[in-house]
Amino acid sequence: MTRLAFKMLPGVFAALLTLICNPSFAVTPSDTANAFNDFSAVNNPNGAWSYGYINGEGSFTTMTNHCSDAFGVADVTEWNIAECGSEPDIAKNASGSAVTTIYDFYLPPTDYLHLHPGPDGQLSTLRYTASVRGQYRIDAAFTSLRVSCGTTTDVHILRNGQSGLFDDIIDDELVVLAPDGVTPVPPPHLIFGSTLPLESGDTIDFAVGYGLNFWYGCDSTGLKATIVKTNGVIPPIPPRPTLPTPPVCTR
User: Fold this and answer.
1) Matching CATH number, 25-229, of 1.10.10, 1.10.287, 1.20.58, 2.60.120
2) Position 9 pLDDT exceeds 50
3) What stretches of 155-226 show up as alpha helix (H) in DSSP?
4) So where are the chain's domains?
5) What are the CA-CA distances from residue 213 to residues 55, 107, 112, 197 (Å)?
6) Percentage of the chain with pLDDT > 90?
7) Residue 54, exposed/middle/buried by CB under 10 A (0-12, 13-18, 19+)?
8) Is there a contact between 205 and 54 (Cβ–Cβ < 8 Å)?
9) Where are the alpha helices (DSSP H) in the chain?
10) What is the pLDDT of residues 43-88, one digit of tens each?
11) Residue 18 pLDDT > 60, yes or no?
């Protein structure tokens, strides 16, 4: 064993004792955040969730206008930046039934929120903020919700505002009808799943932009997202070893 490794042992043992004796480093299991079930058209932020958008400079802004009966549909609640039906927006169908709006997009009765980008390149963004340090399981899916004109959007999952977790595109895709000729069926989903260490205050953004055609029309996109704090533990960082003071040259 080298001298440096030997000197590090006290710090490593101290870290292990801290981890064993201090339960605050452990994360309580079965703590699930569900984007659809948790949605609120009254509070923003709403617990761990915030409803907003990312502009061209990359900054996140919370949406301030909310409305019920959005898109002319009862029990559809929405956040937006100006008035009901304006974009970017984030909406939920709380009616319990599948809905096709007068604007020709489909709203599932469960699981999927509706995200639509803005006309000036704003990315409609659902943000999750971690409350404690720990391991988090993140599962998400994006899909088109358009019926008559294809969705063309860029979709992302960002950690602390940085890309890299997930980046993909939905390219001119349509909702189709099931064999019964009535039930809408979203096209194949873009799916993400991973377990990540997060610090308290870290953010995970689910963002939808206006895609490769740089046009925000027909861009209704469905997002399904759950985040679970697991019982995994991130060990504390061991203290740096104290190195001997080098001798002072007297010459």
Assistant:
1) 2.60.120
2) no
3) none
4) 25-229
5) 17, 24, 24, 35
6) 59
7) buried
8) yes
9) 3-21
10) 999 999 999 999 987 899 999 999 989 998 999 999 999 888 889 9
11) no
The CA distances from residue 162 to 15, 58, 62, 157, 205, in Å, are 30, 9, 18, 9, 9
Cα-only R_g, the chain? 23
Hey, what are 217's tokens?
A: 């029309």
Contact 35, 91 (CB under 8 A): no
Calpha distance 166→143 (Å, rounded):
14
118-128 confidence digits (pLDDT tens):
999 999 999 99
Residue 165, both tokens = 């977790």
Q: Tokens in use for 34?
A: 């569900």
From residue 219, how far is each of 18, 68, 189, 203, 211 by CA, in Å? 50, 21, 15, 25, 8
For 191, the token pair is: 């799916």
Alpha-carbon distance of 49 to 64, in angstroms, equals 14
Structure tokens of 192?
A: 């993400």
Q: Which of 126, 158, 140 is nearest to 51 (CA)?
A: 126
Structure tokens given for 87: 């974009």
- The helix/strand/coil state of 15 is helix
The two structure tokens encoding residue 243: 């190195």
DSSP state of 85: T
For residue range 79-116, list pLDDT tens digits in order.
Answer: 999 888 889 999 999 999 988 898 889 999 999 999 99
For 239-251, the DSSP string reads PPPPPPPPPPP--
For residue 6, how many other CB atoms are within 10 A of its CB?
10
Residue pointed to by tokens 């019964």: 180
